[in-house]
Model the fold of this input.
Amino acid sequence: MKPLNKVITRKDTSFNPIWIMRQAGRYLPEFRKIRKDNPNFINLCLNEDLSSKITLQPLRRFDLDAAIIFSDILMLPYGLGQKVEFEKNFGPKLGELNLNEINKTDEINFVRKIHPVYKAIKKVSLDTSIKNRNTIGFVGAPWTLLVYMINQQSPKKNLKADFFKDELLIKRILLTVEKFLKIHIKNQIENGANIIQIFDSWAGLLEEKDLPNYVYYPTLNLVNYVKSLNVPVICFPREIKNYKEFCNIVKPDAISIDYNVDPKKILRDIKIPIQGGLDPKILLTDKETLKKEASKYLDIFKDHPYIFNLGHGVLPETDPNMFDYLVKTVKNY
Ligand code: CP3
Done:
């Protein structure tokens, strides 16, 4: 059994597996080198030789328990025919949302457009050097994808006042996104992904009253779909206030928490396996602080199934030596 599955199924909770969100990325000089020669980020994700190589880069350096495939949640709108670009020092920039274009997309042309992602997963999952590791596939949650598709860039602190103005459009996009997310998940699993993580990075933007319609029920549909394929699913509804309610309704196999969550409180509130929590900024301090803060999470969750991770992605300015020290701290705990 792979390390994350042992903990998620509670077959063996005597250890804490570790992987880190955005472990394949800009804090690694070997990634920056490849990135420099590949200015188009989408094309880099669609180059299975390079994307599988980048996926494995952190596993060559650190004793991590999982590879997360180098791709992006925005491959979904890209596959649906919306323009997606990444601008330096700005982030994602999406083109105008064209419902006619999206309605013309069927499963065959969607898969044809992004199939190198699946080939990369296959390559990674067949790589014998990481035989005893998990291969994590992932998707953005319907709500977070809707935010990008309508807003066309990362939102600031709040959504624009007119975000919900075209309710019919929103409903239709959500249904379409859900349909293609299932296709995307199925193809990742068929090619070797043995865990799925659902990133809902912008769940925290919603008011409580809107959570059921935009977060709980669309995510529940996906979670049930992943479960039907016999693969564990981890949810990361970043910055929602009520993780307990989320878990009671959505029932993922494990829950990833952000760094605003009080670990002691969540331990009392939630029975399912927990992942993450540590503030990525702690990696920018010193080894002593890092050890102390990481140990805090390990201590609190010592009798609970716990996968070590951060409360959001590792920051680009992180020193790889600090990353290494964190992995060793967790492994030697
Ligand atoms: O190592 C891994 O975790 C796997 C790869 C991965 C990327 N994006 C690569 C990436 C994963 C899992 C993601 C998920 C993702 N993408 C999320 C959810 C997690 C989160 O951070 O909240 C979101 C919201 C996106 C959308 C996105 N992609 C943004 C906002 C940006 C720009 C800002 C940023 O953080 O870099 C990206 C670009 C991106 N995705 C990069 C990488 C390595 C940086 C690309 C570069 O080199 O410029």
